[in-house]
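Two folds, back to back.
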Amino acid sequence: MKKLYVVAINSISHSYQGVQMGHVVGKLAAKNPDVDWDQQTFVYLSSGEIKMHKVIDKLHSKGIKFDRFYEPDIGNKLTAIACITDQSDVFKSFDLF
């Protein structure tokens, strides 16, 4: 079963992480309206920036579609990523949000 995985950087406040997650989920949904997902399972995670970049490389190598959000209010910094996948191993070392 595919799940929606969302990761936000942990160097910002919890409330700001939540906002960033909302941005990236909206972006992912808008770009992929026909994605195969039952909209039941959301997994919200947090991560350091280096680890987030490593998971982006892993998603690329596995051919998993994802989206990312860069926050204009903090210098267009990468703040969140989101993908829909059944490959949970990609995120096994991340902290729950």
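---
second:
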Amino acid sequence: MSIAKNEITAELIGMILGDGNLGNYPKYCKKKSNIPRCQYLRIYCNLKEKQYAKEIKSILEKVFDKKSYLYERPSENILYYEISLNNLDKYLEMPIGDKIKNKVKIPGWIFEKEVYLVSCLRGLFDTDGCCYLTGRKYRIVNFCNKNVVLLRNIYKALKLLKFHPYKKGVKDVELGRQGEVNKFFDIIKPKNVKHYRYMLK
């Protein structure tokens, strides 16, 4: 089984890099050849983001052609969709576990086509990015992550798409030129409606 390299998969990869979790089910972790390496993929979002949750479900089921399952954790104010499959790490070409410790990055194939970069950044921004106001009128597109390798990838991707990103501290990459903020929304086309709060015409 090999990954389908297309725009939908690229968007899923962005979701995983942003607010996803790839792990093993404990009961399948014994090192015996006759026990399947069943793993799970979870994509999280805020409990209030019901609209975007439907997008998560749609992407997961398009990529894997199987049903995903919704779980809610009201005490933590989160929900997530989960899908399980044998050898997910090999299929997605991503390691199991902590993304920061593993220095997970944007796969090389996504840099091969502009449409893949756009889709991947959409998934990243929708799950783990934000748009905020500074000076009460200037909109900022922000990617914040503790994974410095991933941040360098995001910076590179934005540059390749002809943006002028800048680094803010050690955890943030941003776009601050107002024309480029508009361009970002025009090109990336985020699906999470929360990002449009400050996009006033």
